[in-house]
Amino acid sequence: MKGIRRLAQQLDISIGTVSRALNGKSDVSEQTRQRVLEAASAMGYVPNQAGRALRKGSTGVVGFMMQTGSHITGEGDVFFMSVFDGVQTVFARHQLDLVALLCSSEEDPDAYMQRVVARGFADALIISATKRHDQRITFLAERKIPFIALGRSLTDAGQPWLDLDFEGMAQVGVSRLIAKGHRRIGIFAPFDDINLGFITIESYRQTLGAHGIEFDPDMIFRAHPSERGGHQMGQRIAAMPPEKRPTGFVLTNEVMSVGLYRGLRDSGLIPGKDIAVIGRDSPHAHYLNPKLTCFRLSLRDLGITLAESLLATMPAYAHLYPLGIVRKVVPLELVEGDSDGDNI
Questions:
Q1: Tens digits of residue pLDDT in 213-270
Q2: Is pLDDT of 182 > 80?
Q3: Where do the DSSP E strands lie in the chain?
Q4: Lowest mean pLDDT among 31-40, 125-134, 312-321
Q5: Which residues contact 307 (CB under 8 A, 6 or more apart)?
Q6: Which residues, at least 6 apart from 268, have a Cβ–Cβ distance to it below 8 Å?
Q7: Rounded distance, CA 212 to CA 197, Å?
Q8: pLDDT range class, residue 55, cuts 50, 70, 90
């Protein structure tokens, strides 16, 4: 309170007026608010955030839970950092701060989530890597903690979610390769029970069936979603007998194309010639040769939509974002390159 008292004495206004001005209350004139903010800046005054949080019953923090580990994020994450930029762009409008909650790949995500909630340092949460059945969703919904999921799940508590169009990537990618004469088409799926793997495989299976092609479980290639996983997958493909290996491949992960290219080349196969590849766009993929045919979306825009959809469920911000409960599949654009040639 000492800082506020000094400001009030210097400006010759009440302590209550200074406090309301610093907290953005509507009953303070804009002229007075600017006087207080300028004086606070000149004095170097920084509010006691812990005290403010106790008084307001909020922290001004939103947590974004993601899993870490070299087999998950590889040599560096490009997906989440771009999404974070969009999320914080929205939060900055309201003086909210995004905090990354890093769950080790060796820790149970359900236990991690329970610990985070018990500490109570975030007003709302964003969860990612949603599982087929995800107990985090039930846990947060029962405790009435505002949250949004980046990813779908069969666990449904009426929560808002955004997810990428994995069905569309599989359907469009496989259909494009079939049109180019490919019949043995491989596709990536993660090792674990992340829901996107189930969604992708089901769409892949249905697309093959629609074209009269029998589903072959050996064409499902499971790996960690990293550059290393892509490299190992390329070597695994090359080790298959020529008559058994896929002639085309669809990748729904943004970082694996670089590893897959290298794995194929190290084994004597040329991407785009010996095996057609359709992947996801990323900054690293721009340097691939041949140019990658890929699915593209703005990750920053995804982050903006994610943040606005979360705020739409929070009483303090819902009037600013009258979106209701957002449950949306985000489409991706196919950008043609030279990596998915005809099967000759």
A1: 999 999 999 999 999 999 999 999 999 999 999 999 999 999 999 999 999 999 999 9
A2: yes
A3: 61-68, 97-104, 124-128, 147-150, 161-164, 185-189, 220-222, 248-250, 276-280, 293-296, 327-330, 333-335
A4: 31-40
A5: 62, 86, 87, 88, 89, 90, 91
A6: 238
A7: 23
A8: very low
- CA 320/CA 316 separation, integer angstroms: 9
Rounded to a whole number of angstroms, the distance between the first and last alpha carbons of the chain is 77
| SS3 assignment, position 134 | coil
Say how far residue 302 (Cα) sits from the centre of its chain.
8
- Strands across the sheet containing 293-296: 220-222, 185-189, 248-250, 276-280, 293-296, 333-335
User: Which domains does the chain show, CATH number per domain?
Assistant: 2-47 (1.10.260.40), 61-163+299-330 (3.40.50.2300), 166-297 (3.40.50.2300)
- Cα-atom radius of gyration of the chain, to the nearest Å? 25
CA gap 66, 105 in Å, rounded? 10
pLDDT one-digit tens code per residue, 272-283: 999 999 999 998
pLDDT digits (tens, 9 = 90+) for 4-17: 788 888 888 888 88
Q: Whose CA is closest to 80, among 310, 295, 302?
A: 302
**Contact by Cβ (8 Å): 271, 300:** no
